[in-house]
Design a protein that fits this description.
Blueprint (H helix, E strand, L loop, with lengths): L3 H40 L4 H4 L2 H14 L6 H24 L6 E3 L6 E2 L2 E2 L1 H17 L6 H25 L3 E3 L6 H20 L9 H18 L1
Antiparallel strand pairs: 1-4, 2-3
């Protein structure tokens, strides 16, 4: 007589193996795009050819990342929409007033703009908020502590990104100086979004999130070391 436990464990094992294979494929695609971009931006005499693919790379990264969300419930969709909207409009306030992050303006690298802000900025805020929020879930601490850690992870990545963003005309700062106000503003907005992340009711596990964060960190930190 067959063991019932074996009948149930076999499909579960196959499903786990398929998920692992899917994860490796996604990691390979992201690694290929980022390595290509790293070589092009870091070593090409004219990086403009590679810069035109920055919005596509961001969309690809976010698309693959969200495809590994365990359950895409209405609460999760609402979180994504609100985070993108908040991220976009705080940047609109930022470029128009200078009150949140300092005085800056966007260049053409991030693509189509509305109200002086690239539409991709909302997508970027979603990627960073979601990725760092998921990472902080691994810590055995209260939710507000996780929100603080995740906000610090966002600021840490921004610190690596800022010099490269200026170099490749993502945006430009007044007097070519990155103000400390930028990092304070980033932390405050990030913390608010992380609290919202923790209070949103959806499964906060994503197997691709750690890879995405480390890939972004290594990508921008590595570019900073080249020049």
């Amino acid at each position: 007589m067959p063991d019932p436990t074996q009948q149930y464990s076999a499909p579960a094992t196959e499903q786990a193996a398929a998920q692992k294979k899917r994860l490796r494929i996604a990691q390979g695609i992201l690694l290929l795009f980022h390595v290509t971009g790293f070589v092009g931006l870091g070593f090409a005499e004219d990086p403009s050819f590679y810069l035109q693919f920055v919005p596509l790379n961001l969309l690809l990264t976010v698309g693959l990342l969200l495809s590994f969300q365990k359950e895409r419930t209405p609460s999760f969709v609402w979180f994504c929409l609100v985070t993108m909207a908040v991220g976009f409009f705080v940047e609109v306030i930022g470029v128009r007033t200078g009150l949140l992050f300092g005085f800056y303006k966007y260049g053409p690298t991030l693509g189509v703009q509305w109200l002086g802000v690239p539409l991709m900025i909302g997508v970027n805020w979603l990627m960073l908020t979601y990725t760092t929020g998921v990472l902080a879930q691994y810590l055995p601490i209260p939710n507000f502590g996780r929100a603080l850690v995740a906000a610090l992870l966002m600021v840490g990545l921004d610190a690596c990104l800022e010099p490269m963003a200026v170099r490749y005309d993502f945006w430009q700062w007044r007097f070519d100086v990155i103000p400390f106000q930028n990092f304070k503003g980033w932390f405050i907005v990030s913390l608010i979004l992380q609290v919202f992340f923790n209070r949103s009711d959806f499964v906060k596990r994503n197997d691709l999130a750690p890879f995405v964060y480390m890939l972004q960190l290594i990508f921008f930190f590595g570019l900073g070391l080249l020049r």
